[in-house]
Amino acid sequence: MTALDYQALLPYLTLAGVLILLLLVISFKRGHALAAVITVAGLAISIAVVAPSLSALPRTVTPLIRLDDYAAYLFTLFAAAAIVTALLSYRYLRGRRGELEEYYVLLLGATLGAATLATAVHFGAVLLGLEILSICLYTLIGYPEEHHAPLEAALKYLVLSGVASTTMLFGMALIYIATGGLDFATIGKAGSDEAQSQYLLVGNGLFLIGIAFKISLVPFHMWTPDVYHGAPAPVSGYLATVSKGAVVAVALRYVDATGSLADGPLLTLFGAVAVLSMVIGNLLALMQRNVKRILAYSSIAHFGYLLIALIVVGSAGGVAMGIEASIVYLTAYVVMTLTAFGVITISSRPELGREADDIDDYAGLFWSRPGLALGFTVALLSLAGIPLTLGFIAKFYLFATGTAGELWVLLWALVLGSGIGLFYYLRVIFAMTRSPDVPEPVRNRVGARADEGTVAVLVVLLIAFGVYPTPLIDVVREAVAAFGG
Amino acid sequence: MILFWLIAFLLVAGLVAWAAEAVREGAARWVSLVALALALTFVYSVWNAPLIEAHDTQWYAFVNMAWIPRFGIAVQLAMDGLSLMMVALTLVLGIVAVVSSWTEIAQRRGFFQFNLMWTLAGVVGVFTAFDLFLFFFFWEVMLVPMYFLIAIWGHEARAYAAMKFFLFTQISGLVMLLAILGLVYAFNASTGTITFDYFALLEADLDPRLGFVLMLGFFLAFLVKLPGVPFHTWLPDAHTQAPTAGSVILAGILLKTGAYGLLRFVLPLFPEASVEFRFPAMLLGVVSVVYGGYVAYAQSDFKRLVAYSSVAHMGFVLLGVYAWNAIALQGAVMQMVAHGFSTAALFMMAGALQERLHTRDMNRMGGLWARAPRMGALTLFFAVASLGIPGLGNFVGEFMVLLGAFAVHVPLTVVAGAGLVVAAVYALWLVQRSFQGETVAVVDFKDFGARELAVQVPLALALVWLGLHPQSVFALSEPLVTRLTAFSGITP
């Protein structure tokens, strides 16, 4: 490895270094605040060193990973999301007994896994990143070990995520038989031998189904509501954004390099999966009264929307636009979902072992805590794709991409899904406008309000980029410029 | 830049109003009132400023700033005669809305005024946007605060009504977005540039079938907003449940955005397809006239009756737009303005009655004239205006629509003419049941005071002015009408 390689790897090495440092610190001196500070500062430094690493890009370091602007952008996004999660978790965790410091180690580990996935151009790296991410997540979900629900959620995620990984692994094996390669480029150049192409088709199908499992597309979505419901609110937010986003990052690279969604049965299959996710995800959300479950189903629908852009990436000529739309959408989704889970985290009372996840927990929030309610409203309207928010710009991107790719059926499903989606987002908003039935309990205002400040920043981002998205678009375009060229 | 600042001013005024209420109780409504009055003088100065030449047309104001260059989207705001009238109408009815809810809204007044101002800002944006993306943007921006107005300050079934209103307009809006993108990409396919510029897209050379489908997408969104049968069902619920200010704005202005959209976008962007679609659209207009009037007659709820009468009146606008000759188009524009005034006044009356009697049920009213002669006289005036008595603005509008339509399609016009008879029945019935007849014992019934009269009397005078000197409206809409008739290639 050359010096340039190390320069390109700088952010990743920093992140790994911080992880080890934190482990060492914990073994000498335990301290919740100390662990949180090291985590946030470490993540911030690793984001800061992205800039000096850019001049060494793009380069392929070992056959496994490719470091380019795309990976750098996603690294920044995931690390920033991890900072948000850490800030949200701090006060939330203080309400719990037991040792809390390892929570941050796991958070750093999961982020490293997610960042690795964004660089993967080889099945080896895919598996590596995925397992680092998932193993950290199992523990994060079950971290509050005193209660029943998180443990159940962790076990459920362990089993189903394991199944998904196995499916992927089997798919990889079949692809290896067909093409003799494990890196995306070789797979993309595979010949069209009759028997080989059968293996390749089934292999691609299994691999992509594994992906669909991880980003919980219908009909592989069963685990999502239970896991989101059971996990601590900040972890649910992290799971919904970084973990799913990292898998999308791999899928984009894979579909772009191999053209496996260009046409044929897989295109039909995934078109159907997209429609089902948009419609069924939204319909199931309608029946929920639990806000975390509503967000779980809404995330199913949102990844159905995102699949439109992924399918465009698969089509000839749509690569650049499709990837750009996917990344814009992913960015918007990360910001708005973290905002929503941030509000849930702030409203929860972990010291009583209670998450604020029922719709009635938010009754009258507009009058008892107007700032928080306004933030939640902006996040929900953004998820619904209403203008003045980043969610609208993202949805507009999907409409534009789908129109360019002439995916009319999918676009109608998007219209239908968005229409149904309004129902449950507005229901939560309406609950907040009701007059409260019981007076708001006096809250403990002592301590740093890092969580509220974080949510406020996210809300400002949602509105600022919703009104003037050009800077964001420029950055994303630069990050994805290498694709489809 | 003037138009940009006008919209920004209204948005900021909304924020200031919200903040002011926290400082001093009752301050928010004053902030709104002053801001709207200032905005109105602003518009007046624009009207008198020298005209600007752009795209072969004279504009009162014109601005173009890059916004999202990635998609060729710009903040392109412009104001011609029609826009000017509509913006002025918006601001005037905004003042009516603030005054009519002066005492009605007792809680969360700051947030109320905030929503009111943001709705108005969105509407002003809709009336001045000349970039299709920007237009859609404002189209949606005006919805959310309106949703809050209904959902928070509405009456007993507000949750249902607010949801229905939002779903109808939002879903039809998304269909329009799809049509906008279809148009943009069709234009891109033939010219290689992506742009949402209204003036560029006017030149788009569309495949007739595609053009027809895209036209339907726009038409649907505007028909829902208008509202035309069969997409009118959100209107009675939204109107009935909304607070007075919400009803005034909904009926007076938001419905006009649908008609405005037809005039500004559907006809010019898709002339061939629109000509093809003429008779179905005229038929929908006539059905709305007759059905709306018929159902209005059957209502016992004061606001519901006025709401259904709006369906009928906007049916005339639809008929006039698609009759598509100079007389009918002028009539449609006149009808938009006159209906804005008369219906806003009637909704204000409904709100005043509800505030005093705590009911909208006309079965529990009656004989109120004796106690409140000023309210009675004004109700009679606006009811008669809305049935189309000669001498007032509504008559001019409806008469010209019928005159223009007669040249195009006689049977449809005859049926629509029958709608005028129905209108006379329900309008007089309204006055009869609420202000005449058996006196219902009401203690402490206050007649209109100076505050209400200061709004209602000018509205009445405006209708008289429109009726006696309709030329003031015609002169403003004339350039647009001339261009539209040139598009159609149809001579009456």
How would you explain this protein's 3D organization?
Chain A is mainly alpha-helical. Chain A has 20 helices and two strands. In chain A, strands 1-2 form a two-stranded antiparallel sheet. In chain A, a hairpin with a 3-residue loop joins strand 1 and strand 2 (65-67). In chain A, helix 1 (3-28) runs antiparallel to helix 5 and helix 6 (123-141) packs antiparallel against helix 7. With 492 residues, chain B is mainly alpha-helical. In chain B, 75% of the residues lie in helices and 4% in strands. Chain B is built from 20 helices and four strands. In chain B, the strands form two sheets. In chain B, strands 1-2 form a two-stranded antiparallel sheet. Chain B has a two-stranded antiparallel sheet with strand order 3-4. The longest helix of chain B is centred in the middle third of the chain and has 34 residues, at 158-191. Chain B is globular.
